[in-house]
Q: What sequence folds into this?
């Protein structure tokens, strides 16, 4: 049996560290990190994500605000709200829950968030800083994947890492993180996508395979190298009449088919998901420290 990479366990370790850091900020500096989450419309999945983020804030002692906005809001009104949060001394991190309704200019909204409060690391300024190896902060899911590997005793340095998926949220920023000349990186990284030829040949050469392609059970055993490490970023809802809700959540990796061939594998759920929220909390705390001069919580 492979080593199961437990994102819940690792995320709890990070939250414990953050809880201590937040407690010290309150005790020594009378500072409380603050996160504002902006939710437009009533997307059920987005509501679930927002509630999970609120719960995480409560767990580590971060002040949280939730701004629920009607789906018919204009881009201008939404930008106006974000600019007010940029000026708020109580708020150190701003997260606009995506996706936004189709009529809203998403890029304009993202660019209206102060780079210093951009805890998702979506602002073009922060994306550029990440690419050159001098980040303001790290994007939550890619940073969570890196920490999940490192805290599980798997160092990407010198390894061939193959990433499936070139999204701006996972694939491209993760590529930028793992190829840097820095501790916990220094990997040889290949980025595969929908136009990649000979994909199976490439994935089968990976020491570490990271699947973020958005297709349920896409990765089969014949796509992975024996003894490799597989990280599954996928979150796909598939029909299941035996489940209470009529569906189940599965990853991009066919876990049952792959597990006996690899050295280590992350499950879905319980793998990358908890890490994303833990890193959001870490970004919020670090943003607070940076903005208030409260010290450095560290990477």
A:
């Amino acid at each position: 049996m492979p080593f199961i990479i437990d994102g819940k366990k690792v995320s709890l370790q990070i939250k414990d560290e953050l809880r201590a850091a937040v407690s010290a900020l309150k005790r020594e500096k009378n500072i409380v990190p603050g996160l504002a989450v902006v939710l437009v419309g009533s997307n059920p999945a987005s509501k679930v994500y927002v509630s999970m983020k609120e719960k995480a804030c409560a767990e580590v002692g971060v002040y949280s605000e939730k701004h629920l906005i009607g789906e018919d809001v204009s881009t201008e009104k939404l930008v106006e709200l974000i600019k007010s949060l940029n000026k708020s001394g109580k708020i150190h991190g701003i997260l606009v829950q995506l996706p936004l309704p189709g009529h809203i200019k998403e890029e304009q909204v993202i660019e209206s968030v102060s780079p210093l409060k951009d805890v998702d690391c979506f602002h073009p300024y922060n994306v550029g800083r990440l690419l050159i190896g001098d980040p303001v902060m790290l994007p939550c899911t890619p940073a969570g994947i890196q920490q999940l590997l490192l805290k599980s005793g798997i160092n990407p340095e010198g390894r061939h890492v193959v990433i499936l998926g070139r999204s701006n949220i996972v694939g491209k920023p993760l590529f930028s993180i793992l190829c840097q000349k820095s501790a916990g990186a220094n990997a040889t990284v290949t980025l595969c996508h929908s136009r990649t030829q000979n994909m199976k040949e490439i994935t089968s050469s990976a020491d570490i395979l990271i699947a973020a392609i958005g297709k349920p059970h896409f990765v089969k055993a014949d796509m992975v190298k024996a003894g490799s490490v597989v990280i599954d970023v996928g979150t796909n809802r598939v029909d299941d009449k035996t489940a209470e809700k009529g569906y189940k959540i599965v990853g991009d990796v066919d876990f049952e088919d792959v597990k006996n061939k690899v050295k280590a594998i992350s499950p879905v759920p319980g793998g990358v998901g908890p890490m994303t929220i833990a890193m959001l909390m870490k970004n919020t705390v670090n943003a607070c420290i940076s903005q208030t001069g409260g010290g450095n919580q560290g990477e």
Q: What stands out?
A: The chain is about 40% helix and 15% strand.
